[in-house]
Amino acid sequence: VEQFYARPSATNLPAESLRNRGRAMFRLGQIRSAQGKADAAKRHYAEAIHIYDAAIARRPEITAWREELGRTWNSLAVFHHQRGQWGAAEAAYREALRRAGGLLEAEPDHPEWVNFKASLLHNFASLCEANARLDEAEEKYTEALRLWENLQARSPNDPKLIENLSHLYVNLAFLEGRRGRIDEVKEL
Length: 188
What we know:
The protein is mainly alpha-helical. It is built from 9 helices and no strands. It has helices at 2-6, 15-34, 38-58, 63-82, 86-106, 111-130, 134-154, 159-178, 182-187. Helix 2 (15-34) packs antiparallel against helix 3, helix 3 packs antiparallel against helix 4 (63-82) and helix 5 (86-106) runs antiparallel to helix 6 (111-130). It is globular and about 60 Å long. The mean pLDDT is 91.
């Protein structure tokens, strides 16, 4: 499968085929990352982004493809984040957030897009916190909290949403602990 999808992209492929190739490169990036093959993972993520861009240029109306591209940017950001490559991680998070914003402009109340943006903000906030940019981290955590709380109002028993909110409250508590705000830590 890797040999098939690793062939150079043909510009005359149908958009759906390009999308499938982009999805395969994304999966290969995940696999290579899990295997500890950083150079290969980074190369596959970059190729996936390039291919998704080509597919979306042909079919911009398919929001699911744009969401997949945003998730690829997020995976690339997490990849860099886990390796302490702060600048590259931040650039990829910002691009993923830009993509998520575009999805929400098209469909502001779409639960998957809202959840996607909140997850990105949560990840980006942890990067900011790791770099001692506590005000920025708090801002992003708070925005993610607002988005997830709005979703929870619509789906109060969603276990994944409850789990996401729990992780976010813990991260906010640690952030407040770093600032010495013990009352806020207890409340969170």
